[in-house]
Amino acid sequence: MYGILLGFLLTLIAIVVSLVGTKLVSNLIKTSHYNNLLSNSKILALLYFFTLIIAVVGLFVQKYQIPVFILVIFLSIMIIVYSLRTAYKFFQIFHNVGR
Predict the structure, then answer these.
(1) Which regions span the lipid bilayer (predicted)?
(2) Torsion angle of alpha carbons 39, 42, 47, 53, nearest 10°?
């Protein structure tokens, strides 16, 4: 699940980066919202990646399964918060692309 969401996030980042020539993205760059969006997206991608790695390692570690499970739950909550925040920013960009 985390791998699939990571792939979708990387695709969204690629789409936004490909829109650099548009007036909307030029205005985002001038107001530094573009860098903010990309940095939040990179943080979210790292959270997905680390959670994926920790969850896979947790499958093979018998002794520390409960702490690994708690860590994965904590990271999942952080992912939900960052996903909602980043998705709202992406929605604002794609909503205004046609203008």
Answers:
(1) 43-61, 68-88
(2) -160
* C-alpha–C-alpha distance, residues 99 and 86, integer Å: 21
In whole angstroms, give the CA distance from residue 52 to residue 47.
8
Six token digits for residue 11: 């695709």
Work out the number of other CB atoms within 10 angstroms of the CB of residue 96: 13
Give 19's DSSP letter. Answer: T
- For residues 14, 77, 52, 89, the Cα torsion angle rounded to the nearest 10 degrees is 0
Dihedral sign of CA atoms 68, 71, 77, 79 in order: negative
Exposed, middle or buried by CB within 10 Å (0-12, 13-18, 19+), for 51?
Answer: buried
- Summarised one tens digit per residue, pLDDT across range 30-60 is 877 888 888 888 888 899 899 999 988 888 9
The span from the CA of 22 to the CA of 58, in Å, is: 44
